[in-house]
Amino acid sequence: MKNFIKKIKPFEIILISIAIFFSFTLYLSIPVLFNYESFGDKLEKEINKDFKIHLKNISGIKYNFIPSPHLIIEQSDLYLDKNEKVEIAKIKKLKIYLSLIQLYRDKKINIKEIYIKNANLYFNYNHLKNFYEHLNTKITKKIVIQNSNFFYKNKLGEVTTISPVKKLDYFIDLKNKQKNLNIVGNLFDIDYKFLWEKNYQNPNLSESNIKFKNPNIKINNKTYRDIENDN
After folding, report:
1. Which single residue of 18, 166, 201, 207 could bond 184 by disulfide (Cβ 3.0 to 4.6 Å)?
2. Which is more confidently placed, 36 or 26?
């Protein structure tokens, strides 16, 4: 093997490197030719199955492979529960990171992650109840929200609280069998870091802590959920 490598001339190495680069680029770029507009219904079903959320009114689906293969949905409405009458957000340029292997092999969409950026998300009391249920009972793939604003509306539909969120990671760590929600944001002009986790070896118990900066405050909390009595 070493003798074979020595026989290869530098120019040949350059040509082989270029060939490999263009072959790999071609492999990544071929999905551009697919008709993604016809994938709308498939995407709604796969997102509901893998993330337990509802994405409706999907329009403008495009493909990009930089920095890694993903679909871009130009417009969509986000719901946590199918019975919700009002969407949480109207999202522009939502990114769906996917596996190319299944897309090539049988044109099936295998979603790895959803990425949302520069969105305004509006929550009311029912939304928060649905999210709490999602947090405790739903199995979900990774959701990332970055540089977005969370608004809370009271019963009159008035915005009472605004929380800019720098980054939110919501995912299940399969290796450690643990569900995590990590948020870096700002509340009442105070920066905070929020960490929530639940280990599936003891699924009724969850632990959270929040750290505020200036003033420096740390709050830890453990919650035991009584499933039988729904408390």
Report:
1. 166
2. 36
